Amino acid sequence: MTTYLFAPPVAPSLPIRGKTERFPINRIFCVGRNYHAHAVEMGRPVDKSVEQAFYFTKSPQTLVESGATVAYPPRTNNYHFEMELVLAIGKPGFRVSEDQAHELVYGYAAGLDMTRRDLQLVARDKGRPWDTGKDIEEGSVCSEIVPMEGVVVEQGAIALDVNGVTKQSSNVDKLIWNIREIITDLSTYYHLQPGDLIYTGTPEGVGAVSTGDHIAGHVDLGKHGTCAVTLTVGAPD
After folding, report:
1. Angle, CA 85 vertex, CA 164 and CA 235 arms, to 5°
2. Does domain 13-234 sit in CATH 3.90.850.10?
């Protein structure tokens, strides 16, 4: 029996709609600038004909469940929400073809990629890693997972409100790289594994939040219903 100097952290996991089992989280991947209008508002338009999708990762330990209250993080004055459709991987795959990509899909969720925008932009402009801007404690918020094995979501409203005021409103059909393309491309870099989450990108309208703000977002999954995520921004530690 293996013994440890101190207790290992509990494996992050998410609830699954309609099941008692939980979904254990392996890794968190995020697709950068995957809606045209958001890419424009960030000052980095995307030309898919000559550019490739790019990704960053967030530690699984940053994951918090929908409904949480999280502290306003340190070292920022510009804490942003980014509403996203989250893809949950259910089977392993490497160098997966687009025709086979659906086989890796376990389900979907609604997520918030919370961002220290000021730190991210400084890092971006200096050509440095985005870690302090993106890999934030309690910065990966996610709803329960809706099981949709083998289903590729191609369209569906995606929206976010802050204190009841709509800030983001778009449709998943506006993804620059769609679900099949994301799975196919990401699987050329990594051996995708059950438990991987992929935050697929955010539409335009991202913005700053303050202590006390309440965030509510949702994604329409058609006949499978809606997945929704909420978050309250608490006082700084």
Report:
1. 45
2. yes
